[in-house]
Every structure is written in structure tokens, then in C-alpha cells.
């Protein structure tokens, strides 16, 4: 989904929950996990998505798609930077990493969890630490760490 769709879902989930402050969402592939800039908070979640190779017709589902959020609130203005970790095709030599296609229902769950984390980390609300679980896909083959940007960067979840 395009950034505009993510933003719309984020705004819908955040409505009336973020103390009247304005918040923007942007994709940023330069985010370094576990190294938010000074004054920023981090939130990492796993979700499910599909990938489509740009070199061949192959597509594949994955239940190990990492999404990293860096967020900051300053003077009534909040910003959330989002990095969706990519994967590449195991069949193509030197295949480029491709962005995940996360289904709308999982984006809604990501945004619901993100808003809750913003309320805890930026507004210091005392909320439970639980989260909503994403909808898993039917995956027939094992996760392949050498083709996963999350694994390569050390943030991918392990069973």
C-alpha cells in the first residue's frame, strides 16, 4: 500500500487518542534499528506480507516481515518514521530487495499497536503492554535469513 493509505489508516486509528497534537507518518528506509536519533522513541513489530520479485514471476508470502517505527513528539507536532524491511527472491541471482505488500488488515493492526505505543512512550500513559496480533499467511516454505533484510540487520524475529 502507498504511504497515503498508511497515513489515512494511522490518522483514523489516532483520532482523539493523541491529545489533539498533529502527527505525520513517513517512510524512511534509512532508519537504523536500535539506534533512534536523540529524542526519538522506537517500536518494532512483526507482521505478514507478500513479496513479488521484480526479476521473475515468483511471489511469496512471509510471516516474518519486520517494521521499525521511530517517533518523536515536540511542541505539539509528532512524526513517525516507518521502515518496512524487505526480502529478495531466492531463485534469482543478485535479485534486488523488494518492499513488502502488507494487507490492509495488517496495516490496521500495525497502526493500532503503534498508536498505543505512542501513548505509552510519548504521552507517558499507563496502559497495558499487550498488543494486537497480525493475521498470518499460509506459508509453505521456511524463512530464509539470507534473503531477509530484517535478518541481515539483526532485527528479524526468531522462533
From TrEMBL:
Keyword Transmembrane helix set for record: yes
UniProt membrane topology term: Single-pass membrane protein
Main location: membrane
Subcellular location: Membrane
MF GO annotations: olfactory receptor binding; zinc ion binding
CC annotations in GO: membrane
Start and end residues of each 3CxxC-type domain: 46-154
GO biological process: protein insertion into membrane; protein targeting to membrane
Signal peptide coordinates: none
Keywords assigned by UniProt, alphabetized: Membrane, Metal-binding, Transmembrane, Transmembrane helix, Zinc, Zinc-finger
This protein's name: Receptor-transporting protein 3-like
Amino acid at each position: 500500500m502507498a504511504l497515503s493509505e498508511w497515513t489515512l489508516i494511522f490518522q483514523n486509528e489516532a483520532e482523539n487518542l493523541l491529545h489533539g497534537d498533529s502527527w505525520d507518518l513517513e517512510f524512511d528506509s534509512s532508519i537504523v534499528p536500535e539506534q533512534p536519533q536523540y529524542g526519538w522513541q522506537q517500536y518494532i513489530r512483526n507482521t505478514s506480507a507478500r513479496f513479488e520479485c521484480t526479476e521473475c514471476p515468483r511471489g511469496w508470502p512471509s510471516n516474518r516481515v519486520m517494521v521499525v517505527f521511530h517517533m518523536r513528539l515536540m511542541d505539539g507536532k509528532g512524526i513517525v518514521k516507518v521502515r518496512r524491511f524487505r526480502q529478495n527472491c531466492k531463485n534469482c541471482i543478485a535479485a534486488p530487495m523488494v518492499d513488502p505488500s502488507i494487507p490492509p488488515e495488517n496495516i490496521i493492526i500495525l497502526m493500532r499497536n503503534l498508536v498505543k505505543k505512542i501513548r505509552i512512550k510519548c504521552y507517558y500513559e499507563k496502559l497495558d503492554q499487550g498488543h494486537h496480533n497480525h493475521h498470518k499467511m499460509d506459508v509453505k516454505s521456511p524463512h530464509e535469513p539470507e534473503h531477509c533484510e530484517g535478518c541481515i540487520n539483526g532485527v528479524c524475529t526468531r522462533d
